[in-house]
Design a protein that fits this description.
Blueprint: E1 2-4, E2 7-9, H1 12-43, E3 49-53, E4 55-57, H2 63-75, E5 90-92, H3 93-105, E6 112-116
Parallel strand pairs: 3-6, 4-5
Antiparallel strand pairs: 1-2
């Protein structure tokens, strides 16, 4: 741990461990939320579909992908510090809309959760 102006600052390793713990906590909360949706819907006779995506981009309105693309165009690479722990599979907003329509039209798609991903994985 480092000190700066009298404040404790995490080392990069501690920071990455903290981020990993936060990601796991968020994933656990999302998992519980999905279970609650399923239980509530079943109790009320409602069919449900959950579509999951790690990252949605498109139409130039997303801040993260646009910024990453700008840095890559300028420097030819994008730096990542530490160990990358998860998969990042961006999906275009149009493809998400098509997946929503397809899921609503498919009678066998109900009461399930689906991961939406593109054919590319950012590494």
């Amino acid at each position: 741990m480092f000190m700066h102006n009298g404040h404790n600052i995490l080392s990069l390793k501690d920071y990455l461990i903290t981020l990993q713990g936060q990601e796991q906590a968020i994933a656990h909360c999302l998992e519980q939320a999905e279970s609650c949706v399923g239980a509530w819907a079943a109790g009320n006779g409602i069919e449900w579909i959950i579509l999951r995506s790690t990252l949605i981009y498109g139409f130039g309105r997303d801040k993260n992908i646009v910024e990453v693309a700008r840095i890559i165009q300028r420097f030819g690479f994008f730096p990542f510090f530490g160990k990358w722990l998860g998969l990042l599979q961006p999906v275009h907003a149009h493809d998400v809309a098509l997946a929503c329509i397809a899921a609503m039209k498919s009678p066998n798609a109900t009461n399930r959760a689906y991961n939406l991903s593109s054919g590319e994985v950012l590494t």
